[in-house]
Amino acid sequence: MAAVRPDPDALLARVKREETKEKRGKLTVFFGATAGVGKTYAMLEDARARKAKGVDVVVGYVEPHGRAETEALLEGLERLPYLEVLHRGNNLRDFDLDAALARAPQVLLVDELAHSNPVEGEPKPRHAKRWQDIEELLEAGIDVCTTVNVQHVESLNDVVAGITGVRMQETVPDAVFEKADEVVLIDTPPDELLERLKAGKVYVPEQAKNAIENFFRKGNLIALRELALRTTADRVDQAMQEYREGHGIRATWAAGERLLVAVGPDEQGERLVRAGKRMATALHAEWIVVYVETPDLIRLSEGKRNARIALLRLAESLGAEAVTLGGASAGEEIANYARERNVTRIMIGRPRRPLWRRLFRPSTYGELIARTEGMDVVVVGGADDAAALRNPFFARSRAFLSASAEPAGKRRWPGYAAALAATAMCTGLGMLMSPLFELVNVAMVYLLAVVLVATRYGRGPAIATSVIAVAAFDFFFVPPLLTFAVTDVQYLLTFGIMLAVGLLISDLTSRVRLQANVAGHRERRTSLLYAMSRELAATRGQEPMARVAVRHVGEVFDSQVVVLLPDGSGRLHHPKGPAEPGSFHGADLDVAQWVQDHGEQAGLGTDTLPSAEAVYLPLTGGQATLGVLAVLPANPRRVLLPEQFHLLETFSAQVALALERAQLAERAQRAQLDAETQGLRNALLASISHDLRTPLAVISGASSSLMEKGDALATDERRGLARSIFDQSQQMTALVANVLEMTRLEGGGIALERDWHALSEITGTVVGRLASHLDGHPVRIWLPEKLPLVRVDAALIEQVLANLLENAAKYTPRGTAITISAETHGEEMTVSVEDAGPGLPPGDPEQLFEKFYRGTPEGAVGGVGLGLAICRAIVRLHGGRIRAERRPGGGAIFSFTLPLEPAPPVPAEADA
Amino acid sequence: MTEGKATVLVIEDEPEIRRFLRSSLGAEGYRVVEAETGTRGAVDAGTQKADLAIVDLGLPDIDGIEVIRKIRGWSPMPILVLSARAQERAKIEALDAGADDYITKPFGVGELLARVRAALRHATRGASGKNVLAFGEVTADFEKRVVKRNGDEVHLTALEFRLLACLAQHLGMVVTHRQLLREVWGPSHVDHTHYLRIYMKQLREKLEADPVRPRHLLTETGVGYRLVADAD
Predict the structure, then answer these.
(1) Residue A3: helix, strand or coil by DSSP?
(2) In this predicted model, what pLDDT tens digit does every residue of A6-24 receive, in sequence order?
(3) ipTM for the complex?
(4) How far off is chain A from B12, nearest CA to CA, in Å?
(5) Which domains does chain B have, with CATH numbers?
(6) What's the CATH architecture for A27-186?
């Protein structure tokens, strides 16, 4: 085994990546340790070189900082005009994304990858961040050159902050940097950089002085330079690894690393997430950020809970899967989850806790280490500056949340009041008991109160109950009575045990309560999802499905919802027809269309147009985006919480699945219809060509004999020939009439001309008309004397009867009788045509009514096989049914029903 | 065959149909005049002194109905309509415009000649009509208001009698539902076709040998009724 076969999946993934790279524009990043190393300068020089080679290069946006060198380089390069933005009363000059997309050059220069667009500016930017603008440019197939400093890379952000003490507000997700096709490191030795600073080549003089004293200390510069060099080296290393994978060189790392980062509500959560990102990158591992909601954490303040949302969103933006777990013990939950997900490494912070707490309860990480065999546990020490660090993610998310934050702090006093009341009642009960029972039993009664309060009000009030109970017990029951003093020392032990048991009960009961709550929530979610799936499964057609989705998603997320479906040309439209209550009418079709076209989320809580009020999710099916789900939450937190967001995504996936099913069904139906039409056409052609050819042959033969040999023929012979011409033409007439009638019936071009008719009259007319065709078949008519009138289209019902009669005559031996009868049952009349012939062909009688079906093989009996199909169509038009059955004793019965309506009155005649 | 010398105007654009009409009507002794277009036919009806016109509804220049109205504007001559359409609506429209009867394509010579004879007879008899009519087992004296079947008097109600009289007046020709209802029940009842169903049933039961298979009181589905004295 000289060569190792490359994993086909990995190869496929690489090919895919390269394919998308093909279509996407190329991203070149000019990367530096700090401002002033000459990134922009290098980028412009590169642009000039490209232009000299004839490449279509345009400067989209360059921040000149008033640097003369830069200005000089800009000479001769095509520049896009700045976008004038009004932001908080100031006029800003910003990059014009739409102009760039419209100009669509081969290569576009956009400075400052980490720049934040003025979200509150006017006009509103499409994206919050410039890197998103650049994503869109790349997506449009435009090559982009840009610049970024090491401190702006998201996962390095706090490392840099650690070095320099300055935290950057503007960051770029690692993924953007990692996906860059080329990273050009611009390295300038610190001394030279300081020279440039002092010479005013980076900042204007007074700014420069300030900068040198703070950020641009030589120590900082050396550290940053090292960081930049290392990051670039890592990239080179990664490219190398990719190359090795592609060529079947066995990788050196263990396959399938999966990292779990456990975070809590404390300040080091953010540090942990960033550290996790670095480790995951280094390990090439998938990573999961887990937050465990324990009883303690559920009672956190509003602010801390919002911080948790921001933390989990940060994790997602760094490429982690964010998960919230519920449970009583964080250690246990994490360990279980880690086993479930085959995690290989767990990273957890070591909180700085007071000594007494550490003694009282084991730390989560201790518990974790004990419970996870075969997994590495990495414990990250607490950082002193953690509390001081603030991240724009927190700031931004809080901005979203503050608008809708509920009044903080649930009122707890009823719980504590209950604690007091329960203790008082127990004391009363104890008073009654004490003459009869021993004091130990009174203590038991107090413990009962603790259990009750814990079950109903949770841990806090339960603990309070425990403490008050012990005090009350001492005061009221332990001698000397009505003092807290204790004469018998052994009661101290009683108090101690009583308190301990009380506390334990509080804790256990409240855990049980919480777990029941969590389980209840989960179950509710699952059942909601199930309810929607079930209703979707029972629904046919895309629009009805959309309405089901609107109702369910609206209910679950307390939102206004709309499902926008594309038309044939892919344009989205607001739904037509009656809207579901709670429909979202104000959906922005432009945003939705963007989502539809790109198959990506947009709006609230996403990276694109985050200032929108609603969330727009693509309904992504197997092959295409089937529509857009727009959700306007009454409370943004309902959607922003990662688990809720994922639940929303799950709902939208369900809807997409259902829509796809509907679409496939529609397509299949259309295909079947096409095939059927094609089949019908063939059958019709075959049938008609046979049935027309025979009479035509007879007619032309007979008439040519008459024409050429007429004089030589005897009168009888001439008459005979003329007779066959007449008969055959009659047959053709009937056939053509049938075909036309069928076409008319199928085309829906028939409006019934209903009128009141007597069945006896219709029957008489038909029998009279067909008399010549039916000779040899005696027709019996059995109609009750008092048959009510029916409201029908007489001409059509005549045709039904005629076809049935002709059929009976055609398929039964000469001389056998045909019977027409009718009877009424309740609200309908049944009309039957019976014959005494050979009966029905084997098989399902229902198929006799199919078009072009013939009971006997081709040729034996003429006819297109439309007669019964026409009968069925006409009877159905009248709201009746038609069926064929075998007649007991031989023969067949064809019967149809007609609905009866109360007939209008006929005034009686005086002299009748 | 007293009307043997009558002149029949055929307004029809299909030469094959014209040829067939010419030969069959000619063989019966009628003088046949042909017109290919509606406009031409409306003029010829006057200039050729026609006694009866056969008008095709599907003419190339103007609608057959229009031709009927033009002729009806100045002449009471009987007009027969040739209709290729099976739709009753067109027939009723033609009858309302003043046509006397219709015949649906394809048709046999016998049927055509019977209609022509009935129409000419009705025209020569004029409004006065015959007072006594015999058909099948029935003789009806409209002056004496006596109807007999196989010699025995049959009691008809007033409405039944008026219905029979109305049909007899147009013997051999179709009478539309509206026409019958207007003449028998009065102008306010023209939509009550169910009256007709009931009374026609009663009439048949009193006068026809087999009321379910009438030989004289015939139904013209969707159009009206026709009284035929004897099968031709």
Answers:
(1) coil
(2) 566 666 666 666 665 557 8
(3) 0.85
(4) 21
(5) 7-125 (3.40.50.2300), 132-227 (1.10.10.10)
(6) 3-Layer(aba) Sandwich (3.40)
